Amino acid sequence: MPALKKFTVIDPTDRLNISLKMSTRTAIEQYRVFYQQAYETPVEHGELIEEVVRSFFEADADFQKFQKRMSPADKAAVDKALGIDGAGYTPRRLNGGISDTLIEEHV
């Protein structure tokens, strides 16, 4: 049975452009096949990567302690990096070339 528990995606997503080594991409694809066979449920690459990262963060006790003791300045810096200004998300269309992309933006 996979170390990763079966999951359901309920959180809104945001696109993050990252580069991965071929060996990492291969391992992700292998794990995706493993997960699908073990749970008899299809899974998308992004969903799988999201769950692996989330699971890693939850297992890191020192990181959880850090999160609990973050200062208001630390939290503000994170919000700024994410483009969060305290208001709710408002969907906005941006020109995306062939098609428009619906993104979530804080206004």
Which structural traits does this protein have?
mainly alpha, 2 domains, 4 helices, 2 strands, disordered C terminus
Descriptive notes:
By secondary structure, the protein is mainly alpha-helical. It has two domains: 20-69, no CATH class; 71-107, no CATH class. It has four helices and two strands. The chain has helices at 22-39, 45-59, 61-68, 72-82; strands at 89-94, 101-106. A two-stranded antiparallel sheet has the order 1-2. A hairpin with a 6-residue loop joins strand 1 and strand 2 (101-106). The longest helix has 18 residues, at 22-39. It is elongated. The N and C termini lie far apart (44 Å).
Low-confidence stretches: 89-107
Q: Roughly how much helix do the residues carry, as a percent range? A: 40-55%
Number of domains: 2
Report the mean per-residue pLDDT as an integer. Answer: 79
SSE order, as H and E? Answer: HHHHEE
Give the radius of gyration: 17 Å
Largest sheet: 2 strands, antiparallel
Strand order of the largest sheet: 1-2
- How far apart are the termini? 44 Å
Q: How many strands?
A: 2
Strand content: 5-15%
Derived from helix and strand composition plus strand pairing, the structural class reads: mainly alpha
User: Outline, from the CA principal axes?
Assistant: elongated
Total helices: the number is 4
Question: In terms of topology, how is this protein built?
Answer:
Elements (H helix, E strand, L loop, with lengths): L21 H18 L5 H15 L1 H8 L3 H11 L6 E6 L6 E6 L1
Brief synopsis:
The protein is mainly alpha-helical and about 110 residues long. It has helices at about 20-40, 45-60, 60-70, 70-80; strands at about 90-95, 100-105.
